[in-house]
Amino acid sequence: MATRAPNGSPQVVLITGASSGIGKACALHLVSRGFRVYGTSRRARPADAPAGVEMLEMDVTSDDDVARGVAQVLAAESRIDVLVNNAGYGIAGAVEDTTVEEARAQFETNVFGPLRLCRAVLPHMRARRAGLVVNVSSIAGLVPVPFQAFYSASKAALESMSEALRMEVRPFGVRVALLEPGDFRTGFTASRVRTVASTQQSPYYERGERALAVMERDEQGAEPPEAIARELERIIADPSPRLRHPVGKALQRAAPTLRQLLPSGLYERLMMQTYEILS
């Protein structure tokens, strides 16, 4: 695996949302493989810092925080070889029960956060004519999930942005790839935010609770996220990685293809059965 830059020094990787879950697993794995890793967290508490990772305090919804954090890494290392946009969260609730403010906050972190990081880092990658941007999306970005409509929509937006970005920066020697995890056992389940209107008074409450119970059961029964970290290392080592890198159970990885191949009515019925919301 190519853990070093052309000058022989360790490759410098910046990972947002590195204090827990997928980001932490990726940071720890890359450190163990010889990379120089910087991680970000909204509150960079020493107790949360993965061993060997330089942690920075950064809120990806803040222009000032992003500019300051990127400047810190560049001042210390003179370059960023790999940017991993991982920071994100999910809101749960019916579309009708979601306010515009709640939906906007979801996009602010999951879409505009990566945009801020790209705008801060890409000028330096272009100047060096080298670099890699890995955006952590989700299979839900290709397969919308009921009662997680705006999480799915935010990841779909990240998918489209990444595909366009890949074509835009390729002439400058910069690579772009998407990591698309399925269900993994992380802190995502506990950090999922329910919309304020998702109460027993909502006409969607009962079905929403059943769907969320299925999601939580699948997540808690899944594998830890080390497989995602290994796939990230493979992407970094590939001089010409493909765009999409789904990671997870075979059925989840096949879901986007099934969505295209099956009649739409049958596909919707299968999805509703899966999330126990048919009746």
From TrEMBL:
PROSITE patterns: ADH_SHORT
Source domain of life: Bacteria
Domain Ketoreductase per the UniProt entry, residue ranges: 11-182
Pfam family, one: adh_short
InterPro entries: KR_dom (IPR057326), NAD(P)-bd_dom_sf (IPR036291), Sc_DH/Rdtase_CS (IPR020904), SDR_fam (IPR002347), SDR_oxidoreductase (IPR051911)
Parts of the chain that traverse the membrane: none
GO MF annotation, one: oxidoreductase activity
Keywords, ordered alphabetically: Oxidoreductase
Similarity comment: family membership: Belongs to the short-chain dehydrogenases/reductases (SDR) family.
PANTHER family: SHORT CHAIN DEHYDROGENASE (PTHR43976), SHORT-CHAIN DEHYDROGENASE_REDUCTASE FAMILY PROTEIN (PTHR43976:SF16)
Name listed for the protein in its UniProt record: Short-chain dehydrogenase/reductase SDR
Organism annotation: Gemmatirosa kalamazoonensis
Source taxonomy: Bacteria, Pseudomonadati, Gemmatimonadota, Gemmatimonadia, Gemmatimonadales
